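Late entry, written up from scratch paper. The run itself happened at the end of the previous shift, but nothing got recorded in the book at the time, so transcribing now.
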Amino acid sequence: MSASKGFTIIEILIAMVVLSLGLLGILGVFPAGIKKTAEIVEDSNAAMIAESSRNAMELALQNARIDDGADKGFIYLGEGVDALMEERGNVPPVDITLLDGTPPSINKAADYWVKLPYNNGEEYLYPRFDPTIYAVGTFTADNLPPVKRVFPCGAQILKDVNDPGLTTDERKEAERDPYSQYSYAFIVREAKVGDPPAYTTMHSLYEVTIYIYKNFPSNLFDMGNDAAGFANSRHQPVKIFKTLISF
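Output as recorded:
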């Protein structure tokens, strides 16, 4: 009876090489899959923030619009406005609707006030870094607005992290929530129809551009280091959305 034949060293080595190549191909798929998943999550968060902002504008235009002869605009109470007002010591307006037949009583220096440009060709940037300045000013070298202040998202999540009433697990869950890394700003301009220089300005229709940021470098602008802030990669918006609103 002849002894059963086993595998030679060469055969084992060949098998190991083939197996390794197969595993490398499989493992190579994972980084791409992880990156794609992160992009989908980022796109979803950005779209949700932009939609929420647009809804807040539409609600304000229905119930909290103002035309006092000097200015026209609306009270914007979208995501992050309360956090900015708290930061500057502003208080929400007591009367914010037209339902009682009287115009809202407001503080035009507060972050909830959105003044609309009218027949001046200007573009207004919100939130305002300087409460007295509405105009966007000079765009950066990358053709982006000189945003120095943003509406933060997830302010309540950040408060929850420091809430002594939370359990350790609840606090860790709040810390892991990526939503608080996002923020946004928007520009309002009068909509135009046609091609320049023969375009027509629509005085009751406005184009809104919403810029979504992730980990915006607010600290650099707060310290007065504008050059470093504009040069920072986190000053680049992760997404830009455009929409129309009517007054």
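The chain is about 35% helix and 20% strand.
(Scratch paper discarded after transcription.)
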